[in-house]
Amino acid sequence: MTAENVLVISVNQSQKSERQFQSSLDELVSLCKTAGGQVQHVVTQNRDRIHPATYIGEGKLQEVARLVESEEIDIVVANNELSAGQVRNLADVLGVRVLDRSQLILDIFAMRAQTKEGKLQVELAQLEYLLPRLHGQGANLSRLGGGIGTRGPGETKLETDRRHIERRIYDIKRRFQLVVKQREQYRKRRRTNDVFQIAIVGYTNAGKSTIFNRLTKSHSLEEDQLFATLDPLTRRIQLPSGLKSLITDTVGFIQDLPTALIAAFKSTLEEVKEADFLLHVVDISDPDLSQQQETVRKLLTELDAGHIPVLTVYNKKDQLKADFFLANQFPNIQISALKEEDLQALLAKIEEVLKEEWDLFDIVLDSSEGDLLYQLQSAALVVKKELLEETNQFHVQGYVRKDHPFHRFVEEK
Predict the structure, then answer these.
(1) Where do the DSSP E strands lie in 86-240?
(2) What is residue 217's DSSP assignment?
(3) What pLDDT digit, counting tens, does each position of 3-32 carry?
(4) CA atoms within 13 A on the CB side of 147
């Protein structure tokens, strides 16, 4: 399929710094590329506020119209959320499909979703986003023939069938309740077993899936594109001390993530909230990493996950242009996910941080308590284990999670 020609329009409002504006614009260009488009032009305008009817001013709109015609543009993408009226007015003047940033992200999610749950989540987000904007979609939908912005539910006559959409939303939500229940039962089982859980979070394309795959010897999708991972994957790993853990790869975060999407992906993102420990992966080579770190922290707070211990993993150090890097998040580690020794250093660092967080224990077990010793090695961070030959007992030292059932046991010992 040939790439569609895309023209990006963006309004720079005074409350955003030039750097923030440029970063958001670069991200939109990457999103267009991920969706299968080829950005031919970027048209920006400085305005105190967005034009209520056409997003950009009259003069700039005529300039865009000329470019659309001369450059054979297929689609125009705005860097902000558009109202139904703005979409309709722009499409009437320009004569091509018009999308906003949120629709583009939803479109990429529709393209990326692999599991039944993922597909349902995307469809729900798209329908909920579209419902209040149906009035502006007439011209857009009459031209649908595949391409960016038309994946997912776009092929039905949405502009005349509000009732159909409302029924579909109700139906998806009902089916979703079952999925959420199943997920909750699965989590409950994991909590009952008290398995230590790590979640990998971070900005999209920071290298989360590469770290996940190398640590677990898995083959989840690794691409130099935004949102390569959509459906969360969980695997088992063992830390150097013998501590067993579950590790989950999650969907990447991004600036201005559509509210509808956060709401629809709540059950997927619950994985983050359920974790005992977070690895926040940051692309150390990205010039905009401060903004990206802030976006992730903000979203973690929104997900009620701001209290979970975090290790910041500055990844892609092999791509760092500067001679040194000044970290502003602690604790942290700098790695290249492609180097085995760096991954081993990461596992050791996780244990180092856990020692700070967990409680120290020092106990003696009888030789008959071998099963207990095995369980302790799997569930706690054992740093010393020696056989006391004269008493035929085991002297064990280590660290245990404050809320783990073993905590009370080692206290009593």
Answers:
(1) 97-100, 196-202, 233-238
(2) T
(3) 899 999 999 987 778 888 888 899 999 999
(4) 20
